Amino acid sequence: MKKILILSSSPRKNGNSDLLCQQFKKGAEEAGHKVEHIYLYDKKIGFCRACYACFKTGKCVMQDDMADILEKMQASDVIVIATPTYFMTMNGMLKNTIDRFLPKWKELGGHDVYFIITGHDEKEGLSLVGDELKKIFRELGNDVKAIIWGEGVWQKGEVEKTIAMNEAYIAGKTV
Ligand SMILES: Cc1cc2nc3c(=O)[nH]c(=O)nc-3n(C[C@H](O)[C@H](O)[C@H](O)COP(=O)(O)O)c2cc1C
User: Fold this and answer.
1) For the chain, does the N or the C end have fewer beta carbons within 10 angstroms?
2) Domain span at 141
């Protein structure tokens, strides 16, 4: 049994990346794993203030939900990061959350990581998101296992008609 943490950064519940997360979760639970799915928009996550207090204390000066998310990341075997593409890159919610990794950036390695990336463009137009996420999570010391691309999808739910649904389910099932 593996502990799996899914971090969803889209504001759209039942939107395209969320549906892919749900498929991943379904596959993983059927395979006997324990999955927690967090919607970052439901959490209180302030912007990093670059005060660097965390370099001395290991903790952020802001008392919001980020410390709990970092603890959950550290306690997970597998981390799934889901983002819609916004102006060629990851969305602001996810970037803000990643900036808040700072207090624990040396202790966030050793996980298997999956990315779920959606956008109305085809895969080539979304590739920057995959490249930057791969680079960030590898630098932190993780093993990037796969990217599930929800390409060519704009309106909520459009991803349901694509092969990405099965890809997400299989990725979860074989995690
Ligand atoms: C502010 C904003 C910017 C966007 N920029 C892009 C983009 O650069 N490339 C792209 O393919 N899709 C872009 N989109 C479309 C979304 O990525 C697309 O609707 C995606 O399916 C949303 O995923 P979600 O349903 O999980 O939120 C943008 C959407 C918004 C709201």
Assistant:
1) N
2) 3-173
